[in-house]
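User: Could you go from structure to sequence for me? I need the amino acid at each position, not a summary. Structure tokens:
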């Protein structure tokens, strides 16, 4: 598993949580979203990827809103894999997000690297995307460019959402990573990735955790979150 991650910049871990756990998390996610004031984080440039009107529902720092997410981010099934990914027994939280792509109109994300949004010095930063329901291609699953993490940080276009040039990095050329409820996708923050429009009749529900080796210092003081610095596994060495 870790060899595949090192080579490709991502790995899909099948059944990291059970279908029953995923279903329970999905219910809590949608209940939480229904309680919050609706904010659509769709990138402006995403409007260029489709002719239909699309939208997203999301929430930052989800663990401060519902305990189910607090339990997930310290679950050893997750943190043990996260430790392998960052190459350290110590795993530190950067931030969390919920994303719901509504049925028939879930917004896409153009191709990008997460590193453009919160660069770090050692590039151990990675993401884990928990799938709380199935994510086939028609639901706008994540799409990746395997091995692109080895190119290092790439220049991004700031206008419209910090994305890679659309003509050089078309979403259609990336590999879809279809997933089932309970699967977790781990990806390097240097991996070029995006996601398509949800054209299906069902919502796509995911929970994203960004994490790092605590010795990997930010290269810039950006993207602060309430939970940033929380230790998910091990301890924070003096740095």
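Assistant: Here is the amino acid at each position, in order:
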């Amino acid at each position: 598993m870790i060899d595949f991650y090192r080579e490709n910049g991502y790995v899909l871990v099948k059944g990291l949580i059970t279908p029953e756990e995923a279903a329970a998390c999905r219910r809590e996610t949608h209940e939480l979203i229904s309680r919050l004031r609706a904010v659509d984080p769709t990138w402006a440039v995403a409007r260029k990827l489709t002719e239909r009107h699309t939208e997203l529902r999301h929430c930052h720092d989800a663990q401060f809103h519902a305990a189910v997410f607090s339990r997930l981010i310290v679950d050893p099934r997750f943190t043990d894999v996260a430790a392998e990914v960052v190459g350290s027994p110590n795993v530190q939280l950067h931030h969390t997000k919920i994303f719901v792509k509504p049925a028939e109109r879930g917004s896409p994300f153009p191709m990008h690297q997460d590193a453009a949004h919160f660069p770090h010095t050692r590039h151990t930063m990675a993401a884990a995307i928990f799938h709380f329901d199935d994510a086939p291609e028609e639901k706008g699953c994540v799409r990746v460019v395997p091995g692109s993490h080895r190119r290092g940080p790439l220049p991004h276009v700031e206008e419209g959402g910090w994305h890679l040039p659309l003509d050089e990095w078309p979403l259609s050329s990336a590999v879809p990573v279809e997933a089932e409820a309970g699967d977790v996708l781990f990806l390097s923050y240097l991996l070029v990735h995006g996601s398509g429009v949800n054209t299906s009749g069902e919502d796509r529900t995911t929970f994203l955790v960004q994490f790092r080796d605590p010795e990997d210092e930010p290269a810039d003081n950006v993207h602060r979150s309430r939970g940033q610095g929380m230790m998910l596994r091990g301890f924070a060495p003096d740095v």
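One structural detail worth keeping in mind: The longest strand covers residues 91-101.
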